[in-house]
Amino acid sequence: MPVSPDESPTLIDQINALLPQTQCGQCSFQGCRPYAEAIASGIADINQCPPGGDEGIRDLAALLSVSPKPLNTKFGQHKPPSVAFIVEEDCIGCTKCIAACPVDAILGASKFMHTVIASECTGCELCIVPCPVDCIVMKPAPPNNAEVSRRQKSAQAKRRYDARSLRKEKEETEKAERARKKKQALLKMQSVKKM
Fold this sequence. Notes:
- By secondary structure, the chain is mostly helical.
- The protein is about 45% helix and about 5% strand.
- Among the domains are: about 10-75, 3-methyladenine DNA Glycosylase II, Chain A, domain 3 (Orthogonal Bundle), CATH 1.10.15; about 80-145, Alpha-Beta Plaits.
- It has a two-stranded antiparallel sheet with strand order 1-4. It has a two-stranded antiparallel sheet with strand order 2-3.
- Helix 1 (about 10-20) packs across helix 2.
- The longest helix has about 45 residues, at about 150-195.
- The N and C termini lie far apart (about 70 Å).
């Protein structure tokens, strides 16, 4: 089905679609979309994404009609696909890893052991630093996870990241609404007391 001119993806959307959607920040931007915006505006180069590797750089170069270049190692090294793994006996259930995961690939609750959904983990490593007991390690991606095409994995990660972002936005809106209602109730109580 042809795309109407109004629905055609912007250059930023096209660049973003080629990025791995790990949201890891290694490129020096706060996620894949900001990096795509920076590439489109000429602020960033096409070789700042270690998770995308040489294949990602080649795809970006083809899209932008520029020559590919080697990965800028200032931003890190390309690594084989990996996933986070939580050492269960060491997990204290602090939930800091859950809050850090940009694609909601970690399950658990406060004071209970957590686990990573390997098929959803992007390997971004963002859960490692906030863990106060160092119980998260990176392991090679399971074969069924590594076999998923790069584009499929990227699209899946983007859907999960977008869903998480919408959920977080809704939670913030609801929190602000509860605070507003609480403030109104307090003001009403104060005005009643003054009477």
